[in-house]
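Sharing a chain and its predicted structure for anyone who wants a worked example. Both blocks are below, sequence first, tokens second.
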Amino acid sequence: VVHTPWKKPKNQHLTETQKLYNKKFSSEIRILVENAIGRINKFHILKSDWRGTRDSHQSTYLIIVHLAALD
């Protein structure tokens, strides 16, 4: 399931409920995503050139994602 914030319709306004949802979404969900990306970046897999074989990149990345989830 993919959650996205409400987009304002053209020439209309968002309802108060939609505004509250967007505020909660931006403050809670974005923080979780940014923290997860930060944990993955600790392993420098996204910052440096890959020196392994092309076949090993996906498996190595998945291992790092699982290790970051343990953090």
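Comments welcome. The helical segments are 16-41, 54-70.
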